[in-house]
Predict the structure.
Amino acid sequence: MTGDERAKPTRFSPAAPRPIRIVIADDEPPARAKVRRFLARCPDVCVVGEAGSGPEAVELVERARPDLLFLDVQMPEPDGFGVLAALGDGAPHVVFTTAYDEYAVRAFEVHAVDYLLKPFDEERFRTALERARQRIREGRRVDDEARLARWIDTARPGPAHLQRILVRRGDTAVLLRVDEIDWIEAADNYVRIHAGGEAHLVRGTLTGYEARLDPARFARIHRSHIVNLDRVRTLHPWSHGDWLVVLHDGTELMLSRRYRDRLPIDSP
């Protein structure tokens, strides 16, 4: 037998790791297509299904048992947080996707892997996916049971009042405590949050923020204004049932007669 004929040692390659199983849940088909397109360029993932509503997402996750869920916050009932509550300890790792900053703090309160603010680019998406890979590689940790219990508790219907809001300062983002807010005004598809002499433009609606703020501390006094009641200095009669609201910093806002009954105090 020649040297070339001698049996060569067999080289065993380790088995390739199982691909990350992913479900995409979003009620907007273009948004699902964008996530699917980004994932198609990642060889270590496998999309096992898509859902266009909360009930579909719950059913699909329970059936497919994915490792990771890209979950839109705002979907037909239940919303993204309601999906987590329904899944309970069957919830996989989650990356939230939404067009509204106002949900960011709550997303991290339920221990989401990441929070993608639409419109996000592929670089930001890959950052979120890498965070998910690391979380998945860690496997179940000893605190998983407590973490899932907090998920369920925080995601129950009847969301808690906002405590902090994610705002941008230049190239950075900071968590603004709601008790620092002086007043909020509507600005098309955004709201402008006034706090301590600064103004922060945040995507969202005034109605959305009104629903999440403590009504004992904040009141909508006009179709375009929400005010922190602790910042109100004086109220003055105006005309046609309206009143002028003067804040401690001198800002003057109008209290429309339409919103007088929303003040949790004896209205003038």
About this structure: Residues 1-14, 140-159 have pLDDT under 50 and may be disordered. The domain at 164-262 is CATH 2.40.50.1020 (OB fold (Dihydrolipoamide Acetyltransferase, E2P)). The chain has two domains: 20-154, 164-262. Residues 24 and 33 are 9 Å apart (CA to CA).
